Amino acid sequence: MRTQVLIIGAGPAGLLLGQLLHKAGVDNLILERQTGDYVLGRIRAGVLEQTTADLLDEAGVGARMHAEGLVHHGFDLMVDGQRHHVDLHRLTGGKSVVVYGQTEVTRDLMQARAAAGLPTFHGAADVQLSGFDTGHPLARCTVDGETVEVRCDFIAGCDGYHGVSRASVPPGAIQTHEKVYPFGWLGLLSDTPPVSHELIYGRHERGFSLCSMRSSTRSRYYLQVPLTERAEDWSDARFWDELRRRLDPGTADALVTGPSLEKSIAPLRSFVAEPMRFGRLFLAGDAAHIVPPTGAKGLNLAASDVRYLSQALIEHYRERSDAGITHYSARCLSRVWKAERFSWWFTGLMHPLPDEPAIDARLRRAELDYLVGSDAAMTAMAENYVGLPW
Ligand code: APR
Ligand code: PHB
């Protein structure tokens, strides 16, 4: 079979790209390894920058986000038992973020794709890519035991950190940068009212904590844990007790606990692959970069990659211009590295390291003291958190 743009991966990046291309009349097809239910079963962060929310509107999938998403004008930093409000709205001249789970973004995109009758092959096994460096891209895979071949003009690798797209690039043509953090995030999802109307990022000598939410009745909490920990060793009671210990007394008293719907430990890493284009193969989203979740940048970076890539491909077909294609990688990476820096900085600031030298702890303490006492420092944090301009 043949299509203009073949997309590998039906996560947020692949689905959003498919929707934007479709709306511009560019033919596309998605090959996805997992089932749709499996993809929807992933619990992922959901803090949308305004530009991401705008892009979902442009893709025609913003209705439920506007109806159910929570607009947040700020968040709290809790440092050694003191809460400090980061007034995003004031510090950024009126910007805010939308709290709306990635699962819901993915669901909205899946439903829009199905409603448009666009082809997505779920259960696509052993995807193999070739010809993207000779002008004749080709994908082979197995679907329901049958061999499927897809010829196309371009391949969009939206298949995440463990995908086949980046792995298909000749090793000498790609450079990767990686930092793995010596701790993980133990996350718990519960149908309990959030402890606060906004997010609370907490730093305590026992470790980082995050109080987040999915709605006014569903909460998401995280604890920094050593990489040796296993989620199955954390009973709900143990989780709630440890979270209370890391919160200020007033917040701990206000915490409403309940049975966990999901508990898991995620590692933290910073990762970037350069460049993000190889002939007629493009990388977008987690296939090209990973950020520690502290800054909630993962989904937003995927959205900005997809915006640049969809514009470049539409320009190729509509205007017979390849300027966007030529500049795709540099445009993405300029934004990616700024988000990587912010996520790395925020992660280092909020996560105590058990064996760090005393002077490093003191220097970090001084940075926190400066941050919470300086409008200039808080403004710098706020403008990165709401998202730097496109
Ligand atoms: N063949 C086909 N599909 C694949 C393959 C493969 N070889 N490998 C992976 N996939 C699919 C995965 O099953 C997944 O559905 O590609 C999709 C990639 O989706 P994500 O990992 O969610 O990546 P992306 O769409 O870039 O979204 C980035 O997800 O991980 C979070 O924090 C991250 O919020 C960010 C968002
Ligand atoms: C989440 O709600 O899962 C979440 C929110 C903000 C973050 C990370 C995760 O920075």
List keywords for this structure.
390 residues, alpha+beta, FAD/NAD(P)-binding domain, eight-stranded mixed beta sheet, 37% helix, 29% strand, globular, binds adenosine-5-diphosphoribose, binds P-hydroxybenzoic acid
Beta fraction: 25-35%
Head-to-tail CA distance between termini? 36 Å
Q: Quick one: biggest sheet?
A: 8 strands, mixed
The radius of gyration computed from the alpha-carbon positions, rounded to a whole number of angstroms, is: 21 Å
| CATH superfamily membership of the domain at 2-52 and 65-71 and 101-178 and 269-348 | FAD/NAD(P)-binding domain
> What name does CATH use for the topology of the domain at 2-52 and 65-71 and 101-178 and 269-348?
FAD/NAD(P)-binding domain
Question: Which ligands accompany this protein?
Answer: adenosine-5-diphosphoribose, P-hydroxybenzoic acid
- Kindly provide the name of the CATH class of the domain at 2-52 and 65-71 and 101-178 and 269-348: Alpha Beta
Number of helices: 12
Overall spatial form: globular
Indicate the low-confidence ranges by residue numbers. none
Structure class: alpha+beta
